[in-house]
Amino acid sequence: MSRYPDTVQFNRLNRPIGVEWTARNLEVQGEIPAEIRGAFFRAVPDPAHAPRDPMDIALSGDGMVSRFLVENGQIDHDIRYVRTPRFEAERRARRALFGKYRNPFTDLPEVQGMDRAVANTTPVWHAGRLLMTKEDARAYEVNPHTLETVGRYDFGGALRSETMTAHVRVDPVTGELFSFGYEAGGLCTDDVAYWIADKDGKLVSEQWFKQPYLSTIHDFAITEKYAVFPLFPTLTDLERLKAGGDHWQHEPDGDSWLGVMPRYGKVEEMRWFKGPKGVSAFHFVNAFDEGDTVHIDICLTSTNAFPFMHRPDDPFNPMTMTGGLTRWSVNMADPNAELQSRVIGPPGDLPRLRDCDQGRAYERFWMPTYDPRLGPPVSGGPVGSCFNALLYVDVTTGQVLDTMTRGPGFAFNEPVHVPSKQPSHAGWILAVIDHEIDFEHHESELVVLKADAISEPPVAVVKMPVALRPQVHGWWVSGEQLDQSKQR
Ligand code: V55
Ligand code: FE
Q: Is 240's pLDDT higher than 60?
């Protein structure tokens, strides 16, 4: 019997593993192209202790940083816990001390006021630093070479925001980091901090604005001219938290909003546009300018896709949820502009773009999806239900150009794109695929695919000697970037 609750958040694919391990020269079936050199970092939540709340969720799991290091066709893997104060305190106590997801009122007295960060969402790379992020707290810096935790990161003491998103945007031309934090002034505050760090990682601006309600702002986007903040009516409430309730509840009749401001401008220039009611999204593929019009491409669903973010009187129903890649557009030259919304592509989430397309007009991207024709989804991952296919999508036509599937029992994690050194080559896709053998056993493999031919057999498959827990997000860091960070 597992000491963890027998719920989808802790059983089957989500069974905690908690093993820190290192493997060198993993066996490669096929051949890893010689030009692929660098590190694929992944954020993997893995609760080190059985939760005090039997209804706890995967989003609360202690963050592990997983790293595939690739060079000369050879591959190593390492996975380590991020040494947050929370992880260290619970490790000393040999049990959970913190309570529910994002509800500090449920924590034991001995950890009241301690940083609740679990650093489990995205390994962000900027200016030679690796930051393990979680949107309710500041990031934790991890040494990318040793995977040792350096400590809580505040941009050299410059950052005021108490939180940092897991979804930053890096401009491919200027190298600047665009970032934000919501509940920036503390739990259940409506403050949002928006900041820019230059290519060397120096914080050059931080401004705060108020959001129209207390929503979860998971992602944002930039264009060459604008910073773009879509908001959805999944809200928090301090009184509910004090009563021991959940952080998030989706409001099916609530408005969505799009905030747009010049990316180098003042937050006072933010314009808010009303969007459709009741919809939800966590991830945006990209945003870009077309003349004076700003477009943002959203993995939109008709309701919040996390079953535990619903009101008791409006329970999650996967049968009635719809979704699709949706483009929101506003003409910033029109003082009376209204938001235009249209579906331009298939449903799915965890989209991945070429880094060089960030904030620019783009054509193609990769995205996991769930295809019901392949059978019921594997239970697991943060949502509780996994993707079973990977799509290569053309946003100019809405066409799915190619699809990779592995059949029933396989679960797809978010991929990364690795550019090729040859300009005409589409590059490579790396992704971890988890396989459920039976409810008690699973195995994981890393696949290397040709980015524009993902349905072809992988050019390389690396079977993991130890199963991996489902990841949240990942980040590819090139060998050159790693080398430069050694000299820092
Ligand atoms: C998400 C993930 C989180 C979280 C809130 O992808 C939202 C959505 C892994 O943590 O805390
Ligand atoms: Fe995310």
A: yes
